[in-house]
Amino acid sequence: MDFSIIIPATTALVISLIGAPLLIKISKKKGFYAALNHRSSHDSSVPNTGGIVLGFAIIIPLLFFSNYPNQENFSLLISAFAVLLITGIIDDFNPIPVAYKFLGQFIPAIVIVTSIDEQELVIPFVNDFIQLPFIFNYLFWIFFIVLSINAFNLIDGIDGLAIGLGIVGSFFYFLKFVNAGEVNLSIFSISLCCGLFGLLFYNFSKGNKIFLGDTGSLLIGGLLIFFALKFISLAERDSQNTSFILVLGSIFIPLADIIRVTLVRVKNGDSPFKADRQHIHHLILDLMKGNHFLTTGILILTQIGVLFLFQTFVELSEWMYIIYTVITFTSYFLLATSLKKIRDKRI
Predict the structure, then answer these.
(1) Residue 346, exposed/middle/buried by CB under 10 A (0-12, 13-18, 19+)?
(2) What crossing angle do the helices spanning 98-114 and 74-93 adopt, rounded to 10°?
(3) Are 80 and 105 in contact (CB under 8 A)?
(4) C-beta of residue 202 within 8 angstroms of C-beta of residue 21
(5) pLDDT value, residue 347
(6) Distance CA 225, CA 337 (A)
(7) Which portions of the chain are predicted below pLDDT 50?
(8) Which domain range does residue 160 map to?
(9) Distance (Å, rounded) from C-alpha 216 to C-alpha 192?
(10) Helix (H, G, I), strand (E, B) or coil at 284
């Protein structure tokens, strides 16, 4: 690894390590805390401004050590991620209606999608059999981006989980971009990875604790799906479907969880947006007697294991790969259902 990667990675890590305790002090003075409610997995007031630190840890290496600022769509992309940041900051300090929160996600999603060459913007598997107007390609990816952003937003419920999943996903794309010789994307992804790594210590800390807040979780989800689109666009035409399945593997835990929880709520006649303790981290946390570190460790190792298997089986025939993916998601749903029954029985 050359200095073009090491320096921005180190910069992101240092900004995160130094910026977090500084912002913790400011947040405590100003009273910027995560609200406590029936779903909270913590019992004390904790600053929820970690996402702001993460934003600086990403943008500074990008501005000073990459060629992204010279690219035509850089300002537009930065504006898109700025909208995500602002949406998160507003929601962290003063919760906003769901409609406004979705608007703050759809706008960046539209910008991200339009930054990709339309010839590379395909609907996985569908475009192999039928040629749809390009508007359907845009709609599919806008929906997928918003779904993924919300998946990371909702999985951020216990110490270290969203951060850990973000580290796994960003490092996966970093390796892919390095292998493809994409220096700018490599700097972008490793800056996210190292910025998150620096925050991990403070997220688990007892005396000097900070949460990502919606600001951080929305940013992680948006960036990972941006990386995913870039990763797919770099693939050969005949391997884009396989690349999409790898994308599913890279966000497996958040994506499977939001799909399962939504289906459960709809089945029970509840709103998909209802706040409850049905998420996989809540189920495991209750069974682990409130042990955040153990619960997060189980889910991170599961994410790594799934991603490793998806990568290992990448040489399978396409249809076998699809079957394997369906089996993996179905197994997750069945396991989560079993955990819920065990949890409810104990309670």
Answers:
(1) exposed
(2) 170
(3) no
(4) yes
(5) 67
(6) 27
(7) none
(8) 3-346
(9) 11
(10) helix
Tokens for 65, please give them: 């050590």
Q: How many domains does the chain have?
A: 1
Predicted confidence (pLDDT) per residue in 142-180, tens digit: 999 999 999 999 999 899 999 999 999 999 999 999 999
pLDDT score at 120: 75
Token reading at 77: 């992309």
Q: Which residue reads 């405590």 in tokens?
A: 28
Stated length of the chain: 347
Alpha-carbon distance of 152 to 215, in angstroms, equals: 11
Q: For residue 270, count other CB atoms closer than 10 A to its CB.
A: 13
DSSP state of 235: S
Euclidean distance between CA atoms 261 and 277, whole angstroms: 10
Give the alpha-carbon dihedral of 83, 195, 206, 276, to 10 degrees: 40
- Lookup: tokens for 153: 């937003």
- Is the four-CA dihedral 173, 178, 180, 183 of positive or negative sign? positive
Is 229 in a helix, a strand, or coil?
A: helix
Cα Rg for the chain, rounded, in angstroms? 19
Name every residue whose Cβ is closer than 8 Å to that of residue 177 and which is 6 or more positions away in sequence: 185, 186, 188, 189, 227, 230, 231
Sequence letter at residue 209? K
